[in-house]
Amino acid sequence: DSCCPFPFPFFSPPRPPSPSSQQPRSVSQHHTTSKHATMANTRSSTPAPAMVNIAAPSHNNNDNNNDNGNGNDNTTTSTANTLANDTIMEEDTDILEPAEVTSPKTTNVSPATSPNSEGVKRIASTARNEIAKAKTPDELKEKQKKRKDSKSELPHSLPDTFKSGHATSVTPTLHTSKSLSTSFLLSEKELQSCEVLRNLSTPALYEHALKFEEKQGTHLTSTGALATLSGKKTGRSPKDKRVVSDTPMESAVWRGLGSPNIPLNKTSFLCNRETALDYLGSLERLYVFDGYANWDEKHRVKVRVVCARPYHALFINNLLIRPSSEDELAAFGVPDFTIYNAGSFPANRFNDGVTSSASVSLNLESRELVILGTNYAGEMKKGVFTYMHYLMPTRGVLTLHSGCNVGKDGDTTLFFGLSGTGKTTLSTDRDRPLVGDDEHCWSDDGVSNIEGGCYAKCIDLSAEHEPEIFQAIRYGTVVENVVFSDRSRVIDYHDCQITENTRAAYPIDFIANAKLPCLAHHPKNIIMLCCDAYGVLPPVSKLTIGQAMFMFVSGYTAKVAGTEDGVLEPEATFSACFGGAFLVWHPFKYASMLAERMVKHGSTAWLVNTGWTGGKYGVGSRMQLKYTRAIVDAIHDGSLSEDLVTYHTTGVFNLQVPRACPGVPDNILDPSLCWTDLENFQATLRMLACLYQQNFAKYETAMNSPSFDANLVKAIRDAAPDVVLTR
Asked: pTM, whole model, 2 decimals?
């Protein structure tokens, strides 16, 4: 009901019409047994139209459906067929068409203008059939124009939902007020025939998502958050990420052993780009978000995202910095970086350098990111971050995969850590305003958040342990791949049947004590978090500059049994700079910039282990959160100052460990005292040191390169553990 106030926990929007939504319709999605899927198939009002399989070329597991076998581009034919069927197939699915539609009795329509009348059917289908015959891009554009013209010929008394081609039944329509969208024309010629909806408001994006994405599992939850599914991909696809190689920026790109930057030639990138634009240009409507990366206006980057799903538009609206006024949006101008998100359309795996139906390709020269074959929204967020990792160092600004908060006296702390180490939990502190939870820049003026929102993991989320995040999941928030009750719409954060990587994306001001603007002074403390599942690293230790660089380049944590298939024992994981997947320059570049700033501003580095104590995983126990919080509090209030406590040096890693810390038992501070078998402890400690050394060996070529300062290389080498690595 249009008079129903928004948001309302149990508000049930009008049923979105099924047959002509621009999005792909999946039959066999992996979550079909979940409560979420049950919700998607349950309706209390209008019965769903009967669906039948239509014979169509099937998509096989080789992902070769978008190529004719000899490497020639087959985009025009695919686009024409798309327009003819008003749908795009995802791999391993069939096209669905409605066999019969029952119109709800909400509007009186005369037989002459009924959506099911032969005259209307003939008018509406003629242009669509003509489009299917298009052989060239120019001819395709002409057919599209004729199709639009044909819509205007429909009888004026016909409901707007049918005129727009989005329904074959009489249903309530979306508002068409100018306040919901801005008239806009994209410069890309392939996209100029689409309706472009630029920077829609949150309520408008909710309306579009609920109307057009029901088949994608989009629904309201009890808190007013918008729940949706990302499809086959429920996380990033690092093996499908590519960085174009034949550009003037190639000398800056880290390649080789350990690098995440798999090369892609420029021709292959252009093929991906054309595929994405042809797909996006074939749709009825596109969503555009124009916003910014980096709260530091001196180093702000204008970002444009072009996408097909309202969910993606709302996600990026939450995660980036939003224009503050219509005047600012009007003056946006040409973007510095553009993302084309055609995630519902598969990549051509026969394109040179593309190895699957998913492709995330970055071109530093053209400043573009193209996404194909994955609807996981995090690819957009990390695409921006990767570009910032390239651009900012060219301006003398260090990019950091870290959380950041500030104390009441303005003291700033950075939190580095991989997934599962507690970075988001510890940086989100009710007593310290949050600058940001994930991505930051450190310039000559201080620290700035790159983003305008947060992307928090939801698995096992509770109001007791993470109240700030729990309360942020409300109207305006996007929650991905969660399971909720089909009756109450209450989310079950402990249910991981879809994925353990459940996420919530919300604006940063949803955190009650967020610091706005998201700027801070130079860091006083830098906390490097690890989850040591071997139970041999101390819960807290103070690092020298050399050790800070070594630990920063190493980026250690550990996986434990149950987190991934096949993991039965603790497994060490190393990610350079605590964010190796997003680096563009060599890790030593970022490490040298970090050391330079630490020395200049007097920052102190700490290694905090949030993992196991009293033995490795399966024997000991996880460090209690209250102890970790007590350690962090002691770092902040100065209780671990060398003037107040004494330190001792551990063996092998040579770490400086305090003998006392308020709120933490003394024996917990020394891990060797918590083991019953000291010999086993020493053997495990040396084993972990060897793993560090083995990981560091891949940087040997760089360490011998004249590109890096010899003193820097020596400081990092000297900070490595004292253990002989046998080959």
From this structure: 0.76
